[in-house]
Amino acid sequence: MEQEKVVDKVAEQIEETRRREVVLSSLRQTVLNDLDSTIQTDQFLLNMGPQHPSTHGVLRVLLDLDGERIKRSIPDLGYLHRGTEKIAEYRTYNQIIPMTDRLDYVSAMANNYAFVRAVEKLLEIKVPERAEYIRTIVAEVQRIVNHLFWLGTQALDIGAMSVFFYTFREREELLDLFEIICGARLTSNYYRVGGVDADLPKEFITRLYKFLDTFEKNIGEYNTLLETNRIWLARTKNIAVITGEDAINFGVSGPSLRGSGVDYDLRKYEPYGVYDQVEWSVPVGTNGDVYDRYWIRIEEMRESSKIIRQCLDRLPAGKILTDDHKITFPDKGKVMHNMETLIHHFLLVVQGFKVPAGDTYCGTETPKGELGFYIVSDGSGKPYRMKIRAPSFIHIGALDHMAKGYMVADIVTIFGTLDIVMGECDR
Amino acid sequence: MGIKKFLNTIMFGEIMSGLKLTFRHMFKKAVTLQYPHEKLTLPDGYRGFIVHRRYENEQERCVGCDLCEAICPAKAISVVGDIHPEFPERRYAKEYTLDFTRCIFCGFCVVACPVNALAMTKEYAHSSFTREGLIYSKEQLLSLGDKCEQDSIGYLKFKNMWEAENSGKEEGRYHFPPIPSVKSGG
Ligand code: SF4
Ligand code: SF4
Predict the structure, then answer these.
(1) Whether complex ipTM tops 0.90
(2) pLDDT at residue A54 above 70?
């Protein structure tokens, strides 16, 4: 009796499963039919990066391809996140300077400059004239270094190898100069709140003059290799076009914005340093394509060398750090010989200098675009909150718009033309 | 003009001129160095490995004041200061470790040290198979400092800190009682 019941039950279950299967298979058929009518077999997702030699850091981009055309590109950020903004809340203002080196590690000096300018704006202090000149010179040297690096890698990505060797030859010379003044090639830690760390030695000035004398000829070399080269033209003309209006709406700045014909340069329109005392012009493109942005950067190198030469000619004598010893470290000699100074030195080291409560935003024209620091101070020696407006991060927002409709082989060019550095992007 | 442009196009003029440029460079002096055999001359301000320094009488300078630990942005230094066991009027660093795996070579510790006990050198090629191998104790830093004394003096001179300790003014200087016979001070 019991057994029969069980057998009945099992039979019932089998029947039930069979019935369900029929229903399911018919359902599946309809789904498949539906899919057949919508699916496009020539479309697929391509995962580019995070380990890809041309993404300039660790960037992953999901490419939605239709054949060879890019339909959508979705950047996936954060692989290089180090929490600089959060760490900064636990460091004194001086201690943050070496951390800004690591934002855009190709142009550390420019980051230092942007940061100290923001702090100086909060402190409302004036920097000695000689320091201003030195700062401008070093910032422009850094711009040349950055653009040389950019040109070399961009050409390498597109397939022109020799340019890379020639630009790096010049870059090495300039990095050696950096080594003389600050002791390191990339992690410079040179600018200080209220001035700079070290004076320019004679050797630096003579070598820089010598460099400037041959630099024009060297730019000619790069141009011989690229400017009229038909492969370069085919790979850069009318690629990644962005109109001036779109560029403004995306918040693009720097050479990428000027390539689209927008005449906007913070050095010119909100002058700092000694940019308003020297003669130079802002190169502006017309087409907003990769070639125009290349041309702009070449011209910017020329303008930078003009600025450097004028500043070197006029370099005034004087102090390189402000006298305000509430902010700068006192002289070592006094620290060793004078009790009050020693106590003051202790306080400065342990607590840092106090910054009046308030908040400020200060944007600086770095080689990549507008690097801004937004600092909220609560009156103590550490920032209450620090936000970095990194040009690379903003530029990557325009990537999808710029890449839409171009070939998959162009995506490398499009990364390159925006001049993205992931250290700054992920912070 | 038209003919010239046409010829330029079919003869690959611009590519030829590029090749000419690279060809010319074959006869120029090489700008690279064969590294382990040739080395760059480093500038005085070079920020390499950090060392501890001694006074002229071999006595170590560090007084264990903790300032380098306080200013280090990477928290690479840890100091335990104490009263010197033999000379109670003097303090010293009982334990001092510098973790070179953390150090970002910013040079702030040298600025902070009130007795010029620290300096940076032109040493850069130190490596280790273990992490512990890069955590230096005071003794290691002192012996490295003995090895690169000239480098550290050059660094301090570049940073305008050398004159400070050699200005000749003895009075008022924190002149710690000399201990002629003690080598490591600890
Ligand atoms: S160089 Fe900078 S990071 Fe290294 S131990 Fe000194 S203060 Fe710390
Ligand atoms: S090295 Fe200098 S700063 Fe550091 S504990 Fe010793 S005396 Fe103080």
Answers:
(1) no
(2) no
